[in-house]
Amino acid sequence: MTNLRRYFGLAGEAAYTGARFEHLGGEQVADEVTAEDLVAVQMLSVRVPARAALELLEGERGRQLSELLRRIPVDVDMVEVDAAELHSDSAADQAWRLLFRVKGIGWVKAGKLLARKRPRLLPVYDRVVRCVLGTPSSFWLDLHHALRADDHALHHELLDLRERAGIPKTVSALRVCDIVLWMAHHEDHRPLRCPGHGTLSP
Fold first, then answer.
1. Which 8-state DSSP code applies to residue 194?
2. So where are the chain's domains?
3. 75/188 Cα distance (integer angstroms)
4. What gap in Å lies between CA 109 and CA 67, rounded to an integer?
5. 22 contacts: CB under 8 Å, gap ≥ 6
6. Distance separating alpha carbons of residues 36 and 67, to the nearest angstrom
7. Which of 5, 70, 94, 115 sits a CA distance of 20 to 30 A from 30?
8. Which DSSP string do the residues of 85-108 spell out, in sequence order?
9. Tell me: the pLDDT tens digits for 117-142?
10. Per-residue model confidence as pLDDT tens digits over 64-122
11. 196, 126 contact by CB (below 8 A)
């Protein structure tokens, strides 16, 4: 809980820039990438190159992504959806693959962009989190299973942690999970060839 409060600047220190990830720009546009989305991912220490940004804002890839986003549920938690929404070849998976293929995006930025567009449904998954959790065959499906296990115990634990830390309810359970993992390991992750932990389990 202390790390959560530190991240959001509630422990007497300046907030991390990622505290603005969900909220930058106010109300979001659900089904298209906006300039505010591209700035928001910078709050998580990545930058979308100019040509890739233009392609997503004004190009054909951006139009294709909007079509896929219209097929991905809005304002629903990962724990609430059927696993089919996260399987290979789901609209969410197709959107991730489309972004991944844009030059200059890659898997980390693709995941962060989708987490910005669907913060309750799709998680942030970067090198620090991967180092902690390992590389499951499908991070989304493994996390979905973990959240639903034992009558959604982990999901409720994350919501309880959010409440006890005094974090806004607009911060999703997925982001609470991401922040807790990232804050626990990001300093240790800095050394070359960090061994990580690989401890994801239901």
1. -
2. 2-185
3. 34
4. 19
5. 40, 116, 119, 170, 171, 172, 175
6. 19
7. 5
8. GTSTTSHHHHHHHHHHHSTTTHHH
9. 999 999 999 988 888 887 788 999 99
10. 999 999 999 999 999 999 999 999 999 999 999 999 999 999 999 999 999 999 999 99
11. no
